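Students often ask why inverse folding is considered easier than folding. One informal answer: many sequences map to the same fold, so there is more than one right answer. In these notes we will look at a single instance of the problem. The structure comes first.
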């Protein structure tokens, strides 16, 4: 008899923050029950979802106890503590500090500024939204490229997948959606191509969770 998954993940298929958590769980082989929460039709602002996360964001990880965790990096850190192998924080304390700095370059310094709510507040005009997103994505990737190049191997830091890659790749996905050319960032481009071959990437990518009735 199949066991009920220990975790329920409230997510949106194209949310980069949700993708980070799905990827971490795929990489660590952690079973979970996914429940979609739309960011486009008001569902994320419903009273039901605001009970899960007062900010109205995804992802939200619900434990068997009913307790809930928010914020992708906090969720992944929790999963890392309970399921440490394979690790997403490899290396020495100095290595892990560098890895976390890379992750936060995306998590704190890039992704929030081109989030849907920010774009809508910036301008009602889609062309202006696109220009805004392109500017901040390019700025973030430029910083990431400079920080990671001295230490990168197959991935953002050496040859081991880390939390930094789980932040970077979804952001590159967003860059492509906003028609940002990533060729000026050769280290990022190489890391991105390497990640595309990973089973955990394939299992967690947005296409694997796209609703059947979604219309672009």
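Output (designed amino acids):
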């Amino acid at each position: 008899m199949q066991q009920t998954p220990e975790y329920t993940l409230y997510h949106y298929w194209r949310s980069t923050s949700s993708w980070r958590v799905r990827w971490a769980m795929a990489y660590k082989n952690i079973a979970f029950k996914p429940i979609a929460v739309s960011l486009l039709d008001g569902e994320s602002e419903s009273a039901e979802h605001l009970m899960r996360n007062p900010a109205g964001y995804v992802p939200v990880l619900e434990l068997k106890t009913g307790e809930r965790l928010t914020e992708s990096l906090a969720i992944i850190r929790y999963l890392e503590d309970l399921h440490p192998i394979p690790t997403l924080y490899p290396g020495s304390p100095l290595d892990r500090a560098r890895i976390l700095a890379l992750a936060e370059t995306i998590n704190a310094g890039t992704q929030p500024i081109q989030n849907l709510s920010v774009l809508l507040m910036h301008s009602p005009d889609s062309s202006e939204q696109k220009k805004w997103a392109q500017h901040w994505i390019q700025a973030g990737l430029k910083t990431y490229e400079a920080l990671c190049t001295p230490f990168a191997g197959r991935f953002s830091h050496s040859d081991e997948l880390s939390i930094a890659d789980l932040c970077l790749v979804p952001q590159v996905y967003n860059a492509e959606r906003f028609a940002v050319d990533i060729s000026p960032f050769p280290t990022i481009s190489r890391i991105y191509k390497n990640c595309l071959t990973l089973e955990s990437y394939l299992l967690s990518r947005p296409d694997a969770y796209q609703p059947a009735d979604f219309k672009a």
